[in-house]
Input
Amino acid sequence: MTKYIVHGGKPLFGEVEISGAKNAAVAIIPAAILVDGVCRIENIPQISDVTAILKILEQLGASIRSINRHTVEIDSRHIHTTRTSYELSRKLRASYYLIGALLGRFGRAEVAMPGGCNFGGVRPIDQHVKGFSALGAGVTTEGGYINAIVESGRLTGANIYLDVVSVGATMNIMMAAALAQGDTVIENCAKEPHIVDLANFLNSMGADIRGAGTDTIKIRGVERLSGGSYAIIPDQIEAGTYMVAAAVAATGGQILVKNIIPKHMDCITAKLQECGVEVEEQDDTLLVRRTARLKKANVKTLPYPGFPTDMQPQMTTVLTLAQGTSLVTEGVWSSRYRYVDELKRMGARIQVDDKTAVVEGVEKLTGAPIQAYDLRAGAALVIAALAAEGESEISNVQYIERGYEDIIGKLRALGADIRAVEEPDEDVLSTAQIS
Ligand code: EPU
Output
């Protein structure tokens, strides 16, 4: 088991290069299944969710050629099965994109029920199923697998109105409809930057998709997608996480966050500025520093262009150190506050009532043994540990490594005192001791 040991209280100073967007990569890689040719994908983040999804494609029969650390070529011409490995695909949430991609290309898909981060609430996929059914597929669940099949072998375009704004359903239906017969209109779509990125990827391979980034997406089904080359956008949430790190670290430092799209950062920049953090934008960089005590702010998470739910735990960490009482409201997920008890171990004062957290700012946090329960909560705990006085030991860091490329290396380059240590699994040890 890997743990992170952090000695907090140091200013962070320097530059950090943002990697490609996780939530774009985990959709665009499965979307390569739709391509009857070779596609080169650049700016892929080196994270464990990407490794897992690439392995699944390989197991389906796609050839994966690694060109360099961030570029792969995927050849999906020789896929020989539409059934994914149970062990691999149940590990990550994004495996649901394999349904849209396999169904779109081959008219059938058998994919293990998706897993992923557990932040304490339900994560339904009824809107995905509604979309596939409208396109003519029969969808059933059996033995832990979701089976989708269209008898004629090809989906048919349809009008689909999403009952909830869902990133995953918008992207999955877009993938399935790209090769359908006729036109599809999806209404009440999510508008996140990675939705536009997926549409751009598919269009660059020959699809005909308009309106991504608005409420209504129109897809004219094409006969075939052929190969091409595409670079994934920078990760909005990774960038936001480093901005927050600059905001909570000891004063005297500053971080230049590089390789970002400033427009995608507006909602996060505005909220940090409200808290008194200085953010200067220049081309594809943001310079972030704090010179005075943080100020309280109220935050409500919403679909894009609202404040992202994937920044909620990190932003709450900022507010634990702000002067005054702040309110955080989770507006996307039914619950996402499992990390609050861990912050409390460090001296934070937070009360959670259903979807709202009341955060009473404290002067300082102190290091403690803490545990990550999911990816973004884990990132928030790393940030809290960097701000805290003394030593913190963070366990369950495999969640963090699902979505943050080389977080240790990037933070150390900024002057953080953080290191990863390998420790024997306690359960294994205690069993060994008993026997
Ligand atoms: N929802 C439904 N039915 C559905 C789908 C979603 O009711 O069929 C509900 C959900 O329960 C939730 C809301 O709709 O209340 C939004 O869910 P959405 O479908 O947008 O989430 P997702 O596609 O499963 C992606 C990201 C999450 C991120 C959300 C919201 C991936 C792999 N995951 O999940 O990212 O929180 O969008 O922006 O893209 C993360 O990166 O840490 C992460 C959890």
